[in-house]
């Protein structure tokens, strides 16, 4: 039963991934990708990690919707109404993806997987949390800072108007001078 | 632990959710009638239900070059998300799916409305619904993180992501009492993800109904139903999260769950009529500058209490 469900979700995930490159509409491509990732979340749940699986679904839904907005906004046809293709650099992309797939598949087959010691606990959420926040705490903290720095950096590079534009050269303006609403500090 | 997964509960839970949503809709119609100076009769209460028949019989409206598939998916997502979300909500001692990560499941299902409403706005290929869809996303960016911290506060307080465990952890004191900020933020977020009342901006009158603007017939019925089902699901979830679940004197568990859910629903219906519409750009600012810091501090409280325990 579980194996059958796993296979169905796997096929659906791959189908969704293929559809991303077959759809002529940005919205459809994005939501095909979302469907694929939701299936991956289902696979993670079936693998016995319900927390990571459900969080994958939660994050991917929000991420893909925001991505749809940015794709539609930043691509050459802002309304997203013209047909488009997600395929770029066909030969290079095929080579890279083929090599990556072969490498990962080889890794799956060649790695000396350890045998299971003991039995899986009823609630794996605690174990996942302990593994991430215990031994791997330094990794997670480093990752967190790297992500935050990237986000702040990207935002700083992306904003057209900084605080000196908003609050004046000596930051003395009590209310920022914004062309549109929505800014902080009004 | 609640008794989980019995077959009837799979049918009873959606039916109960629908009943709650219809009750909310009818109560709202009565309040509407009172505000308008019409008599608050049973006829006024069932008035919105006539819309169901009208919408089922209505001629579907079509728009040129619409993306029917995505539109349909978006419209279906709202009610589906509500029904799936309520699967983890214990009603007295009964729950459809007693997931160990129930809180995260509820959050994920509620987040499906992001995709659903954006698609419902995108599908018809019309400007005003699309604006409505984008408005919901802007609103989502504002309400989602405070909501997540509110949920985390309850989960930290109970040291569990299981909704039944969270309800059981409030034997002594309701979380609503010692986590008032999280409770208030949660209630506001329920109105936000069901885009009702002050958060009705994505379907606002200023953009001719927004996401609802071009929908007609069964599509409109499903989208509207999704709205009220999400409200009912959010109210039902507030009970195990913050109001002690089915615990209470004399009456059985399910009766207390029902009474508390009705009280939350009533409070939200009252708030919906009392609070003016909030523009998403304003709410984003308030959410990120005030609510997120406030809910993080709120989450710190149960974290410290649990550490001291």
From TrEMBL, chain A:
It is found in: Cell membrane. InterPro entries: NADH_UbQ/plastoQ_OxRdtase_su6, Nuo/plastoQ_OxRdtase_6_NuoJ. Keywords: Cell membrane, Membrane, NAD, Oxidoreductase, Quinone, Transmembrane, Transmembrane helix. Its EC number is 7.1.1.-. Pfam families: Oxidored_q3. It is an enzyme of class 7 (translocase). The chain crosses the membrane at residues 48-72, 93-113, 137-159. One of its GO terms (molecular function) is NADH dehydrogenase (quinone) (non-electrogenic) activity. Its main location: membrane. It catalyses: a quinone + NADH + 5 H(+)(in) = a quinol + NAD(+) + 4 H(+)(out). Belongs to the complex I subunit 6 family. NDH-1 shuttles electrons from NADH, via FMN and iron-sulfur (Fe-S) centers, to quinones in the respiratory chain. Couples the redox reaction to proton translocation (for every two electrons transferred, four hydrogen ions are translocated across the cytoplasmic membrane), and thus conserves the redox energy in a proton gradient. This is NADH-quinone oxidoreductase subunit J. It comes from Streptomyces chengmaiensis.
């Amino acid at each position: 039963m579980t194996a059958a469900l796993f296979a169905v979700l796997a096929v659906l995930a791959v189908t969704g991934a293929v559809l991303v490159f077959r759809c002529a509409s940005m919205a459809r491509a994005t939501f095909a990708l979302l469907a694929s990732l939701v299936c991956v979340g289902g696979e993670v749940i079936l693998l016995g990690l319900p927390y990571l699986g459900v969080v994958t679904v939660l994050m991917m839904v929000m991420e893909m919707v925001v991505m749809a907005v940015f794709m539609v906004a930043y691509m050459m046809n802002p309304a997203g109404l013209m047909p488009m293709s997600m395929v770029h650099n066909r030969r290079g992309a095929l080579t890279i993806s083929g090599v990556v797939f072969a490498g990962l598949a080889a890794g799956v087959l060649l790695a000396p997987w350890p045998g299971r010691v003991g039995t899986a606990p009823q609630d794996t959420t605690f174990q996942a949390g302990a593994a991430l926040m215990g031994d791997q705490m330094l990794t997670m903290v480093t990752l967190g800072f790297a992500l935050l720095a990237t986000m702040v950096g990207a935002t700083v590079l992306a904003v057209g108007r900084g605080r000196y534009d908003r609050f004046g050269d000596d930051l003395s303006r009590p209310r920022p001078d914004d062309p549109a609403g929505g800014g902080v500090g009004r | 632990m609640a008794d989980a997964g019995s077959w009837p509960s799979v049918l009873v839970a959606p039916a109960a959710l629908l009943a709650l949503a219809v009750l909310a809709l009818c109560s709202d119609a009565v309040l509407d009638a009172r505000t308008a100076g019409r008599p608050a009769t049973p006829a006024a209460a069932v008035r919105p239900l006539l819309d169901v028949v009208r919408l089922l019989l209505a001629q579907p409206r079509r728009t040129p070059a619409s993306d029917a598939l995505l539109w349909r998916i978006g419209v279906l997502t709202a009610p589906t998300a509500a029904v799936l979300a309520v699967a983890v909500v214990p009603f007295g001692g009964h729950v459809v799916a007693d997931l160990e990560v129930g809180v995260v499941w509820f959050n994920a299902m509620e987040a499906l409305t992001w995709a659903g409403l954006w698609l419902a706005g995108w599908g018809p290929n019309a400007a005003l619904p699309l604006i409505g869809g984008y408005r919901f996303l802007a609103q989502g960016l504002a309400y989602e993180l405070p909501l997540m911290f509110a949920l985390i506060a309850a989960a930290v307080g109970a040291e569990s992501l299981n909704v039944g465990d969270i309800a059981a952890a409030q034997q002594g004191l309701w979380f609503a009492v010692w986590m008032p900020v999280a409770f208030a933020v949660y209630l506001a977020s329920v109105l936000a993800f069901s885009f009702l009342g002050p958060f009705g901006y994505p379907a606002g009158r200023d953009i001719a109904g927004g996401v609802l603007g071009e929908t007609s017939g069964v599509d409109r019925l499903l989208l509207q139903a999704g709205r009220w089902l999400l409200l009912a699901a959010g109210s039902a979830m507030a009970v195990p999260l913050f109001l002690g679940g089915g615990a209470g004197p004399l009456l059985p568990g399910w009766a207390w769950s029902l009474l508390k859910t009705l009280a939350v629903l009533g409070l939200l219906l009252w708030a919906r009529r009392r609070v003016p519409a909030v523009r998403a750009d304003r709410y984003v600012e308030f959410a990120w500058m005030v609510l997120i810091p406030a809910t993080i501090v709120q989450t710190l409280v149960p974290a410290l209490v649990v550490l001291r325990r």
